Amino acid sequence: MSSIKMNKLLEIRNLSIQFKHQRSIIKAVEHVHLDIYENEILGLVGESGSGKTITALSITRLLPETSEIVSGKIIFQEQDLLSIGQTSIESIRGKEIAYIFQEAAASLNPVLPIGRQIQEGIMLHQNVDRKKASNLAIDLLSLVRLPHPEHILKSYPHQLSGGMNQRVMIAIALSLRPKLLIADEPTTALDVTIEAQIIRMLLELKEKLKFSILFITHNLALIEKFASRVAIMFRGRIVEEASTKDVFSSPKHPHTQDLIQSIIRL
Amino acid sequence: MILEARELKKYFPIESGFFKAQRGFVKAVDGVSFSLNEKETLGIVGESGCGKTTLAKLILKLLEPDSGEIIFSPGFFHLKKDIGAVFQDPLLSLDPRMRIRDILLEPFHAHGLRPENKSIIRLLELTGLHDEILMRLPRQLSGGQRQRVSLARSLALGPKLLILDEPLSSLDLIIQKQLLDLLLKLKEEFGMAYIFISHNIAVVKKISTSMLVMFQGKIVEQGATLKVLREPRSDYTKKLLEAAR
User: Fold this and answer.
1) Which of A231, B15, B56, B158 could form a disulfide linkage to B20, CB 3.0–4.6 angstroms apart?
2) CATH code for position A236
3) Is residue B218 within 8 Å of B68, Cβ to Cβ?
4) Cβ–Cβ < 8 Å for B138, B188
5) How many domains does chain A have?
6) Same structural domain for residues A134 and A207?
7) Are B201 and A266 an interchain contact pair (Cβ–Cβ within 8 Å)?
8) pLDDT in tens, chain B (245 residues)
9) ipTM of the complex model
10) Which of A45, A50, A192, A255 to mutate to test the interface with B (most CBs of B within 10 A)?
11) A192 vs B240: CB contact, 8 Å cut-off?
12) Which domain holds residue A115?
């Protein structure tokens, strides 16, 4: 790790986020520091409610309105994403930093054909006509190894399986060649064999297109297979951050130790 | 032997259009035979849509098979008393308007029994729950607590067989491990048989003595768990093993 010089892609500094619920305040994220390097896979692992998703959403300011950013900076390409203007963040969101979520079918529009949904992002951020966008969409569907892309272009999400929909989401996310892909439990709803296929494909695409992945999951065993580094989140804080090897060979925080002991191995 | 399933079939019609013209069938369970012995744990593995849950529902008589039969050993089964069931999502299997106390009392009442207070306390103890939850509603509990309540309810009448349909899948890692350990402990204590349905082959290895692998409604592999996992023959089992490594 130390022998290769790694460049920082994104820095989260002292991020704290809270929610107002009735009269009480819930601290969802507290004093989080996190670095994401170029071309790496960082696993962000924690249980439900530990603050993983809120941290991820805050990166491009997708937080729900009931939340409040109490403090912090998120530095990306020498600007603070939390303080730049609305137009600037919109030009980064989806283009430089893209997301995929757990339920692909819930992220897709049920009444629009797949092709239109892929073209939408391309036409929004790039100056191309529908014909060109349609060709790009076909290329993207082949890239995520969906068979008969011309046919899929005309299909609707409900006609595809969960794994196929997630491939479509990956195609959309990668359509603008982002530098960072935030994958929030992207395979949790899928069968284990499909999960393995999707992850293998993500790794190949990452090598081919050169981007970083922030992989969010509650499944520490999954992350062991492919993340270069792991950050463990617990009750809104990052309690441990190290190379995957170190985390598994000598976990320091008791919660990390609990997590590792709870892995049911074959 | 507790039960034997012979050539079970359950097809669901695919209908389309205004007049519900029948276009074909989904063969959810397509000629499945197996037997379950006392104190055995049978793991059932397969991907979504392979017919695992339909099979569970057939055993519970929540569905009638189109053909084939399930034979329970004579004099052994009072179906509703002797088979307990726990499903994946406890929020869906617990009535949101009932307090935990009433949820745990319901199986007794359904059979005209009047349990003493200590029976309920015993169920809580068995499943590692605190009695302060008795007056709460399901939504006021954590996911792990809710699944323990489901389990406590299924144990109420002292079943001889528990059907566990993906009981760990909705839970966090640490809670999964705790619940799995609890299931192993309860089995040792009461000697129940389990049918454990899961897509997680590592969990199945830990808990089951024999297993069957389903694919598109059919059994593609069955036998002693360790043997199946050591010498998998079907492509699907091999793929599952590879994904779990």
Assistant:
1) B15
2) 3.40.50.300
3) no
4) no
5) 2
6) no
7) yes
8) 889 999 999 999 887 777 777 778 889 999 999 999 989 999 999 888 889 989 999 999 899 999 999 998 876 667 678 899 999 888 899 999 999 999 999 999 998 999 888 999 999 999 999 999 999 999 999 989 999 999 999 999 999 999 999 999 888 889 999 999 999 999 999 999 999 999 889 999 999 999 999 999 999 999 999 999 999 999 989 988 988 87
9) 0.76
10) A192
11) yes
12) 105-177
